[in-house]
Amino acid sequence: MVINMFVLRELSYAFILFFITHIFGRSLLSHYARKLPPGPTGFPVVGSLPFLGSMPHVALAEMSKKYGPAMYLKLGSRGMVVASTPDSARAFLKTLDLNFSNRPTDSGATHMAYDSQDMVFADYGPRWKLLRRVSNLHMLGGKALEDWTNVRKNEVGHMLQAMHESSCRGEPVVVADMLVYAMANMIGQVILSRRVFVTKGTELNEFKEMVVELMTSAGLFNVGDYIPSIAWMDLQGIVRGMKSLHNKFDVLLNKMLKEHESTRHERKEKPDLLDVLLENRDNKAVGEERITDTNIKALLLNLFTAGTDTSSSSIEWALAEMMKNPSIFKRAHVEMDHVIGNNRRLEESDIPNLPYLQAICKETFRKHPSTPLNLPREAVESCEVNGYYIPKGTRLSVNIWGMGRDPNVWENPLEFNPDRFLRVETMKIDPRGNHFELIPFGAGRRICAGSRMAIVLVEYMLGTLVHSFDWNLADGVELNMDESFGLALQKAVPLVAIVTPRLPPSVYYV
């Protein structure tokens, strides 16, 4: 009897051990037998969240100096791997691109993006591919961009006229306001066949504030996303703000949708992007992927917010850097005056003949990327990178800002020096996602859908502003180059400048 009890006990232990190792073994061994990338230890419950501070891109860049190009952080109950060098970014965004093709579900996607029904946060799949294909075909792709060249030209003309009138009155120009006004109207004409803002006023100011608030709140590290058990408390008030902002945008988007549907018959010969989306929604063919009203509103939100904020921010940073370095302005003017002259506006067809302007834009994308940390991705399955184990569900963040300021990648990285992109060895580097030293829009399947449009807008609008005016600060005003963290990297203090026309008055009027 004693022997039988002993055998029974041992068999019980063996069964329990077998159960643990075979049923739970993978998750246990992934953290103990398999080697995670190095990273900070963190605190109980909150993990490394306190280390991120108010400028996570800066904090993560500093941590990478200690822990290496791919580091692992425990943020609450979630794991996050951070790629901080071109090689590590390539491993995740190219070699393992498909495995990291989805976005994590967090408060921004839930409360701002209609529960991930948009193009930015949606899972990689048929609906996302459809939204992307329609957007490329009618707005963001190469052929579509050519088709609305005149829209850009006319809106830039309205902007120049307003700036010229301000200069005649001796009034300073708030750069971001001018840019958002022009870009929102460009996008409005492509999507809705009309200018969204006819005049600058309260409506435009509210829209700009809403866009900035969205891009700021969507980039914050919300504690509730990492410690789900306390998400209901909304300790930082982020979710409360998102819900309020979402309601404002929803009212605006519903109004756009309703007004547009009532005039669809007027555009049968020349449908705009929203008409195409509505046609897809109404398509009843069995077995075909269809877009819902919610998808349409979510996509419009993507296009209007990201399309105005990221590009305008890049242009504002470029002008600020040039005002800080007047020799760059002088050299840009010499190049433009030689190619364009002083009797007409810059045309988009001039840009290939302006290598210094293109170098200024690349240098801006390097030092002031529109998104300092790429939009997060998530591991669909566990995988291995450089000998390190990455568990399923791990968030991926690529520190684009950190790579742009890494002395191991760039010589004198804190210096704003467009000449670095005119050298033989770096001249062919471009920001379209193929050269991992410079990926301001990300790379791979989830590269920013509007990257082509952003490059066109930044080169054309920045070039036009530089060619058309001399730029100076008002007396007694100092140039502030501080950053404000968010989904997009804003200037903490908006650029306000005194502009002086360089061309004949007739050039500034539409």
Main sheet strand line-up: 1-2-7-4
Count all strands and give the number: 11
CATH hierarchy, class: Mainly Alpha
Using the alpha-carbon principal axes, give the shape: globular
Secondary-structure-derived class:
alpha+beta
Classified in CATH, the superfamily is Cytochrome P450
Number of helices: 19
- At CATH level 3, the topology is Cytochrome p450
Give the CATH architecture: Orthogonal Bundle
Helix residue percentage:
40-55%
Largest sheet: 4 strands, mixed
Rg: 25 Å
User: Regions with pLDDT < 50 over 5+ consecutive residues?
Assistant: 1-32
Order of helices and strands: HHHHEEHHHHHEHHHHHHHHEEEEHHEEEE
Total individual domains: 1
What fraction of the residues are assigned to beta strands by DSSP? 5-15%
> What's the rounded overall pLDDT mean?
89
What is the CA-CA span between the terminal residues?
A: 103 Å
Pfam families: p450 (PF00067)
Enzyme class: oxidoreductase
InterPro entries: Cyt_P450, Cyt_P450_CS, Cyt_P450_E_grp-I, Cyt_P450_sf
Subcellular location: Membrane
Key attributes of the depicted protein:
510 residues; alpha+beta; Cytochrome p450; 4-stranded mixed beta sheet; 3-stranded antiparallel beta sheet; 8% strand; disordered N terminus; NADP; membrane; flavonoid 3',5'-hydroxylase activity; metal-binding; Cyt_P450_sf
